[in-house]
Each structure stands twice: as C-alpha cells, then as structure tokens.
Design brief:
3 helices, mainly alpha, 130 residues
Length: 130
Amino acid sequence: MMQDAARESRKKAASEDADYHSTRISESARVIGFGLLAAYYGIKIAPDALIEDGWLLSIVGVAGVATVLLDYLHYWFGYRLARTAEANAEYVYNEGWGPLWYGCKVLAFRSKQASAFAGACALLILVWCS
C-alpha cells in the first residue's frame, strides 16, 4: 500500500514536471520563431546590411515561419484531441480520431523544436560568417 502511494506521488510529480517543461519549450520555440522572423525582415529591409541576402537568410525566414505555424498546429491538434476525448462516454483519448490527433500533436511539437533549432543555427552561421 505504501509503495503504491509513493509510486503515484512520483508519477504525479513527473507528470507535472513534464507539463512544465513542455510549456517552457513551446514558449521558447514561439519566441525563437518570432525572433527569426524579426531578424529575417530586419536584414531584408536594411539598406546597408552587412549580411548578404542569400540562401542562408532564406532558411532563417522559412524556419521562423515554420516554427510559428507548427506552434499553432501543436495547440490546434491538442484542442482536437481534447474535443475527441470530450465526445466519448469514457473521456479517453484513444477512441475515434484520438490517435490521429495525438500523433499529429507530437509531430508538430517535435517539428517546431527542430525548426527553431535549425533556424537559430542558420542565423548563427549567417552572423558568424558575415
């Protein structure tokens, strides 16, 4: 009995920790995405930019847009997943469209991280090589 209570307590703490970090990752990716867009447009419109307008700058811009779009999709798929659970009698996520929404949500979450990282690396290289 005591072991079960301790295990449940650890499980709850781990779940809360994962939720916290997931939220922070999402917030950070969103900020990075908008930052990449700001850097892209700032460099694009600068009349005497020291950084060349080339394919690396395009990667920065595309990564910024992709990160913001994937952030939105991550939350939209989460909303659809919650609505699916709400619509069934047991309030479970694995009925009907649930598995599809869950898979899309996970894919969007991972993809926005990859996009933010790739864009930040491209911007770092662009600045480093200028």
